[in-house]
Amino acid sequence: MGTARYITRRLIFAVCLIWGVSVILFAMINAIGNPIEILLAERPGITDEIIESVTKYYGLDGSVTDRYFTWLWAIVRLDFGTSIIYNLPVSEMLVIYGMETLKIQIPGIVIALFVSVMISVLAATRQYSKVDFGVIAGAMVGHSLPGFLLGIILILIFSYWLGILPSYGAYSTRNPVMGSEVIDGLWHMVLPVSMLVFFNTATLTLLLRSSLVDVLRQDFITAARASGLPERRVVFGHALRNAFIPVLTYLGILFGLMLGTAPVTETVFTWPGLGALYIMAIQQLDYPLIMGATMIITVMLVTATLLTDIAYVVIDPRIRLG
Amino acid sequence: MAIETATLNAVQRAPGVWRQSWYRFRRNRAGMLGLGLVTLVVVVALIAPFVAPFEPTDQSAMLRGAARRPPDAIHWLGTDRNGYDVFSRLLYGARTALLVGLGAMTIASLIGVIIGGIAGYAGGMTDELLMRFAEFFMVIPVFIVILAVVRLFGIVVVGTWMEDIPNLNLLTIIVLLGCFEWPPIARMARAEFLRLRNAEFVEAAVCIGTPRRDILVRHILPNALPSLIVLVALGIGGAILAETMVSFLGFGDPKAVSWGQSLYFNYEALKVAPWAVLAPGGALFCTVLGFNLLADGLTDAFNPRLRQ
User: Fold this and answer.
1) pTM above threshold 0.90
2) In order of start, what are the domains of chain A with their CATH numbers?
C-alpha cells in the first residue's frame, strides 16, 4: 500500500472518529431530556410558555434526528451556536479560551523536548553509570507524579512560601508585573508551563533514553565511529535522528494526554483555558458550550494523532503500511 | 523401567514460568519497591477501620474550633477545613482507591480479553472491525467524555429507582473507567492469541479433540496472562489516578471517602492548611508509583530478553 493511500485511509478514519464522538455526545445529552426544562425548572416566574419559547429559540423543538442533522450542518459551517450561560457565540469563546490553552501547552512540549534530548544523551552515552541510574530513577518518579500534584506543590513553594510567582490566572487584574502586559503574561505562564515541562520531560526521557541506548548499539554507529567522526556528531547527528522516531509517534499521544487533562491543569492554576471552560460548561449544563468544547478538543486530538501517524511513515521508510 | 521412574522422581522438577519469573523479579530492586508500596496500600486498606484514630465521618474537631489545625499528637496529620482527621481519611481513602482500581480493571480486563481474544483467534474481517473499534476508544478524549457522562448521568438518575443505590456516583465512575480503559488490554490479548493460535501445544490440543472453548480458556489464555498482568497493574494505577482527578474537579462521589474528594474540599484552603492537600496527594503518588514500578518489574521478570 502506498503512502498516499495510507494517508487517505487514516484521514477517513479520523473523520469517522470525529463523527462518532459527535453522535455519542448528542445521544448522551438528549438522554436527559429537554435541557431548557432542567435549567429553568422551579425558578420563580417561569411558565410553560416561557420554557416553550426558549426551547424554540435554541432550536430544541422537533425530533432528535432533525435536531442532530441541523446541529451537524451548523458544526460543519463552524457555527457552534450561542452559549446559554454567557450569551456569547460559542465559536468565539472556543477560539479565545483555546489560545490560552495552547499558550501553555505548546511551550510545555517544545521546552520538554529540548530538555529531554539533553538529559537522554547524557544518560545513554554513560549507560549503567550513576548518572544513568539517577536519570532513570528521576524520570520514573517524575512520570508517576501526577501533574496536578506537582502543580499544587509548585504553587505552595513559589507562590505561598516564597511569594515570587502568581498562583492563578493568566493576567493580573490590576498592576501588571513590571508595568508591561507582555511580561505580566509571561510571568503568569511560568508555573503552569514548568509543571507541563516537568511531566513531559520525565515521560519523554524514559522513552528517548532507552531508544537511544538501542540505537547506539547498532552497527552503523560503530561504522560512523570507525570512520573517525567526532563523538558529538555520531551522537547528535546519527544516533539521535534514529532514536527520535518512537519519540515522534509518542508526541501525538502526549499532546492528547495534556489536552485531555487540561481541565485538571487549568483548575489547579485557575487558568482561563479550554479545560476550565469545559468544567464550567458541564457544571452549569451549558449544552452548546459542552458540545462545542468536546468537538474542538476531539478535533485537536485527532489531528495530532493523524499528524504523528503521517510523520511516522514519511520519516521512517522501513515501516510496513497496513 | 523402575529405575527410570525413580531417577525421574529424584530429579527436581524444573521451576515453572511463574516461579522463574519470581526469581527474576526478586532481584529487581525497583520492582520490589513497587511491590512493597502496593502491599502497603493493600494492608492499609484492609486494616483501616482498626487502626484509624477517628471515624472518617467524624467532624467533631469543627465544633471544638480545631479545624485546619497543623499535625499534632492527637491528629497525626492535622485536621482539614471540614474538621475531619486527615490521617484517618487517608487510611480509609486507600479502600476507595483500591476498590476503584480493581473494579475498573476487572471490567476492563473482561471486555479487553473477550474482544481481543475473539479478534486474535478469529482473524480476518472480525479482527479488523474489532481493532478499529478499540482504536476509536484509544483516540477519543476519554477523560473529557467521562467527566460529561458522570455529570449527565447524575441528572438522568434523579427520580428513578437507581437513586437509592448507595455510592451510585462512585459506581458510575468505576464502570465508566472500565468501559474506557479496555483497548490496551484488547490489543495485547489479540497479539497474544494471534501468536499462540498456531503454537505447537495448541495444535496438539486440537489434534486430541479438545473443545474450542477449552483451548481458548485453558490453553491459550493462561499463556497470555503474563503480558496481560503487566497491563492490568499499570491500569490499576491509571484508574486510581483518573478517579482522583474526576473527584478533584468536583464530579466525584460526595459520600465516598476518597483522596480526590479530600483534594477537592481542601484545595481552596491550600494556603492555610497545606497538610490536608499534601497528605492525600502523597498517598496518591505512592500508590501510582507503586503500581508503575510493579508493572515495570513484572515486564522485566516475564520477558528477560527485553532487559537492557
Assistant:
1) no
2) 3-76 (no CATH), 90-315 (1.10.3720.10)
